[in-house]
Design a protein that fits this description.
The chain contains 19 helices and 18 strands. By secondary structure, the chain is of the alpha+beta class. The longest helix is centred in the middle third of the chain and has 23 residues, at about 295-315.
Length: about 575
């Protein structure tokens, strides 16, 4: 990755610690007005300043029209191991303290959150023979649609499962007073809690699962990551309880686990582009926005970086006609749209993670159709310039259409289907001719999703009853001539679309309604106190968040249906005036 960045055309890499963001404030405002803008509870509808660059701790100034802050856990970071606390964002690396002050001075409201990491173990000191082995997926699915294969697919490193014991829990319970990190004044991640938190919350459980995950190929590293035992106990206590875990009786701890507290902003101060409302040209991504998790941070980085680049390119263009191009995703576009919408409308009270349950459109926001959903949008903005990507997408869609046509051409009467399905009388006797595509939609046929198993995988819970009809029964290739010759990835995608067909159609209707609400923009300078029907609480919530669409306003907690109707009437009256 570093080699790719260092050789990327037009990109300069500079190493240094940022101490301050440089701002330019309006010259036509007096000191009192500037202080009022900086001290208000929520971001002003009109930005109080524009970013002009950053100052490094060395004193060097780097000028920039757009700045993206991705501080992770380093912003005001403080590491905790037992009762010890010291400034740091990650073990062995300094925290960013000057930047916290700079953001406060700019008017941002900072909060504190915490997370943690488990100890690291020497794999050569672990007895893996006593643990169940967890193999990787076969066949392997690449992360990118650009690739058809994955290196080391046939030489994967296995993970192993072990667990805590009552003896482990006793050691930790006896030493709760030896950790300052488990205090409840600072919120930690609810869905991946520390071992101390799990033992406190679930005292009735005798054990918790631990996954031992090698950090790389054996020829590169011996370090093992024990997923599930993030903790902040003193180092001697950590080693003591580790050696009470099955298979770890003689383990060597190469690095202790630790907790880290860090600063974050109120994400309701962000626009959908992840530009701040308070400072023009300043973007934020990752933990600074109140999220946790590598994927959440990486996704925000892509969106913030893309929008900063698009805006910078627009600023430099000799003809600046039209609006600045933006990469904006809504809830129906994908999980990144859900994440951003949740952040900017609801804020955060604990580290935010993305789950499928957070999306109303999870059947259509699947990993297998991300290319169809998003590639052309990225290309239209210039974020993808490789024409082969679009040509590949065109080929995939053409192959899917041919596969669907192949399924549609195989048509039988009910009694014929009953015979082909081994006498399954659930086919019905209505006399209508039915295609193989219809039979997939009804759940009587299924694709062999795993290539080496007859069990359907990656099936939504609501579709399991339908999928169970197919388990052990005829596969599509048993019925449809030529189906086995269709590439596996195309067969999977077509079968998935067919299985979800009825649900997807309903979700599309809901998405169309959602997009109509999202298309109704709310003026940034709207004075909610002038809408008399709104309660004081509704005025306060709307003024704090300043939603940019009617749909976003509806998703703010505490806004009543009557309040929404009043807001809609107010906006329409203003538009007609």
């Amino acid at each position: 990755m570093l080699q790719t960045l260092e050789s990327y055309p037009g990109l300069d890499l500079r190493a240094g610690s940022v101490a301050d963001i440089l701002l330019e404030r309006p010259t036509d405002l007096d000191e009192r007005s500037l202080k009022r803008l900086a001290s208000q509870d929520s971001a002003s509808a009109v930005a109080a300043a524009t970013v002009t660059g950053v100052r490094l701790e060395s004193g060097e100034i780097i000028r920039a029209r757009k700045v993206v802050i991705t501080t992770g856990t380093f912003l005001g970071g403080e590491i905790h191991i037992g009762l010890k606390a010291f400034p740091s964002g990650r073990k062995g690396e300094a925290a960013s303290t000057g930047l916290s002050k700079s953001l406060k001075d700019a008017g941002f409201r900072l909060g504190r959150m915490k997370t943690g990491t488990p100890p690291r173990l020497a794999g050569s000191t672990i007895d893996f023979s006593r643990m169940p082995k967890q193999l990787g997926d076969m066949p392997v699915t690449p992360f990118s649609f650009v690739h058809d294969s994955v290196p080391y697919a046939n030489d994967q490193v296995a993970c192993y499962q072990t667990h805590t014991t009552p003896a482990v829990h006793k050691v930790i319970e006896a030493n709760f007073d030896q950790s300052i990190h488990i205090r409840e004044t600072v919120r930690g991640p609810r869905y991946c809690p520390s071992l101390e938190s799990k033992i406190k919350r679930f005292s009735e459980k005798d054990s918790h699962v631990i996954w031992l995950e090698p950090e790389g190929l054996p020829e590169h590293t011996d370090v093992v990551y024990p997923n599930g035992i993030s903790n902040t106990m003193p180092e001697d206590i950590q080693l003591k309880f580790l050696r009470l875990i099955p298979g770890l009786e003689n383990v060597t701890m190469t690095q202790p686990g630790y907790g880290v507290e860090y600063d974050h902003i109120d994400p309701r101060e962000l626009k959908r582009t992840l530009e701040t409302k308070r400072v023009t040209g300043l973007y934020m991504a990752g933990q600074i926005n109140g999220t946790t998790g590598y994927e959440e941070a990486a996704a925000q980085g892509i969106l913030a970086g893309a929008n900063a680049g698009l805006a910078a390119g627009h600023d430099k263009a000799p003809d600046r006609a039209g609006e600045t191009p933006q990469l904006v995703l809504d809830r129906s576009d994908g999980y990144l749209g859900v994440l951003i919408d949740d952040l900017i409308t609801r804020g955060v009270e604990e580290p935010y993670r993305v789950f499928t349950a957070r999306s109303e459109y999870r059947l259509s926001s699947r990993a297998d159709n991300a290319d169809i959903r998003l590639t052309r949008r990225a290309a239209a903005l210039g974020l993808i310039r490789d024409t082969s990507r679009l040509a590949r997408l065109d080929a995939v869609e053409a192959d899917m259409a041919q596969a669907q046509a192949l399924l549609s051409q195989v048509v039988h009467l009910p009694h014929e289907w009953e015979a082909k399905l081994g006498g399954d009388r659930r086919v019905g006797r209505n006399g209508a001719r039915t295609s193989a595509l219809d039979m997939i939609q009804k759940g009587f046929l299924a694709e062999d999703m795993s290539a080496d198993s007859r069990q359907p995988e990656n099936i939504a819970p609501e579709l399991m009853p339908k999928a169970r009809k197919c388990t052990g029964g005829p596969r599509i290739s048993d019925i449809v001539p030529g189906w086995a010759d269709v590439p596996l990835n195309i067969r999977r995608r077509v079968a998935t679309e067919a299985m979800y067909h009825g649900y997807l159609r309903q979700q599309q209707l809901e998405a169309n309604t959602f997009k109509r609400e999202e298309s109704l923009r709310l003026p940034v300078d709207i004075d909610y106190s002038q809408i008399r029907v709104l309660s004081r609480e509704e005025v306060d919530r709307l003024s704090r968040v300043r939603p940019d669409t009617l749909g976003a306003a509806r998703r703010i907690g505490g806004i009543t249906p009557g309040g929404m109707l009043a807001l809609l009437k107010h906006v329409r009256r203003a538009a007609d005036a």
